[in-house]
Amino acid sequence: MSIFDAIGIAGTGVTVNRKWMDAVSDNLANINTVKRTDEDAFAARYVVATEAGDGKGTQVAGILTGSPEGRMVHEPDHPLADENGYVKYPDIDMSTQMTSLIMAQRAYQANLQTVTAAKDAYQAALHLGKG
Questions:
Q1: Please, what is the average pLDDT of the chain?
Q2: Is residue 104 helix, strand or coil?
Q3: How big is the CA angle at 105 (ends 99 and 109), to the nearest 5 degrees?
Q4: Among 20, 21, 85, 125, which residue's CB has the most CB atoms within a 10 Å radius?
């Protein structure tokens, strides 16, 4: 594997992990989004990653969405409450989302470090050729 392959493979990881962090951020931003009971709750988004077609790296295979069923909460004073006093919240677990965010962030950082190390090695090789 060449230095350029390492940069390319790590670059695919950066892209996938960025999409993962975006999806988790959307989920966290909408964790308290309230809907009427006759509407769909915000459906959490989950990134599906797979091996890249050329076998070098990874790619986003798709974005899955969670259940729009949500969870019913009794809040009779809420302006969106139904006649029984219920509203609908997304069925998103904050601790699971925060764990996913940390994992995606660490993987993103690791891939960026790989790109940086490969770039530095390439620049060092160029300087050897000059001297």
A1: 92
A2: helix
A3: 145
A4: 20
